[in-house]
Specification:
Blueprint lengths: L1 H23 L25 E2 L8 E2 L3 E2 L9 E6 L7 E8 L4 E6 L4 E14 L9 E3 L4 E4 L5 E16 L5 E2 L9
Antiparallel strand pairs: 1-2, 3-4, 4-5, 5-10, 6-10, 6-11, 7-8, 7-9, 7-10
Length: 181
């Protein structure tokens, strides 16, 4: 009966190590009573997000700007890297106000979209119908192939990160939707 004795020794060693770890971490070897008040961790302000690329020699704070005239009013943009007008990789962030709508449009390149905050609603085609758009919550990823007609809405303040390889642009399905005209 060597196996049961070895098992007992292993369990005893495990129990001793567990008690040592719990006591050294300020815990107790026995579970806390169910009536104990929960411990609340102090709130620590998060450091502001920064961007650090070969284009800048030190980390820089993110800076939002009004989106170009090609987009309906209210949208903000942040260029993280690259230039969408050149054949180079680019990364952008867009901040959509709650209820923002971007009518049916297309881009000449594949568009890689990650939802950073909020809910991004995207629909494929030209209907522009919110009811047929798919809700993409925070953390979602969408790949929209080049020349695919699509439309978007924002539910709550929504931030997306878009990356691709330029040159890019936006062409509206209905010329009347183009704010540049």
């Amino acid at each position: 009966m060597i196996a049961p004795r070895a098992l007992r020794v292993s369990l005893l060693a495990f129990s001793a190590v567990a008690a040592l770890v719990a006591s050294s971490c300020g815990g107790a070897a026995a579970p806390a009573a169910a009536t104990a008040a929960p411990t609340v961790a102090p709130t620590v302000a998060a450091a502001p997000a920064m961007v650090y690329t070969p284009a800048n020699s030190v980390p820089q704070p993110f800076v939002w700007a009004k989106a170009p005239a090609a987009y309906p009013a209210g949208l903000e943009i942040m260029v993280i890297e690259g230039d969408t007008s050149k054949p180079v990789p680019f990364t952008l962030r867009f901040r959509f106000p709650d209820g923002y709508a971007l009518p049916p449009h297309q881009h000449p390149i594949d568009e890689h979209v990650t939802v950073i905050q909020g809910t991004f609603l995207v629909g494929m085609g030209t209907s522009g119908n919110r009811e047929t758009a798919v809700e993409m919550p925070t953390g979602s990823f969408i790949l929209i192939p080049a020349l695919t007609k699509h439309y978007v809405f924002a539910k709550g303040v929504t931030i997306t990160q878009v990356h691709g390889i330029g040159p890019s642009g936006i062409a509206y399905n209905n010329p009347a939707d183009d704010p540049r005209k």
